[in-house]
User: What shape does this take?
Amino acid sequence: MPTRILGKTGVAVPLIVIGGGSRFCTIKEPEMSIEILNFALDHGLYYLDTAHDYEFEGVVSEERYGLVVRDRRDEIFLATKVQRRTYDEAMKDIEESLNRLQTDRLDLLQIHNVQQLDDVEKIGSEDGVLKALHKMKAEKVTRFVGYSGHLSAESMAAMAERYDFDTMLIALNHYEERIGDFEKQAIPTAAQKGMGILAMKVIRPQETIEGVKPGELIRYALSLPHVNAAAIGTDSLDVLKKNIELVKYFKPMSQQEMARLGKVLSPFFSGKNLAWLQPGYSDGVPA
Assistant: This one.
């Protein structure tokens, strides 16, 4: 399975990260979650990403991951996220995450969903969540620290500029309206700091972009400069098997292919085509 080095971490990771968000949390049967995760590990997809807040209709992502982590921890690059912004709240949630995951150590601990510049200030305040991440790294509870974000390129860049992080997980090809240019502003800023860069939200429902297949969107994200891997939500063995085949034979897009797809995607990036996203739509589950 092809791998890339995750920035200054020096760790080789597969091109696809198994995402534990909305799609994964729609799996009702624990046995199916276990089967999917074991199949991924058996086929070289050993980077598992989840979050303390990933939960849908009673399915808690970290608990499902824990059913596999407890037996195969040494085979996994394990990442989770903490949403709350104060030191005390974050420490409480991190402890709960470790219990759910049935482990005493993480590979990557991330601040979840950085939204705006006020959020950036709060994160780095005296009693902010960043203090909790530094403590966890110093105590070797986590090897690396990072952050994720969906909406503001300025905020994502500011996090990289102001603080010392190992990774950034950033939304691309996203259906939410975004502020700023993620590809030309946030990603290069993080790359200049040597950070590992992970893309998420790279797949949108096929119906929204005529003639564009999900596999093309994955290839597009993985062909962008500086992007090391893409986090992909997984809700079935069929989806997983298709993604394994795509990664196994991955070839970067040509400049012509990137330009063509970039033009197709640009109206969606600008937030002009959001009317289709309605409550109840199959991909409308929060992630």
Summary: Residues 87-101 form the longest helix (15 residues).
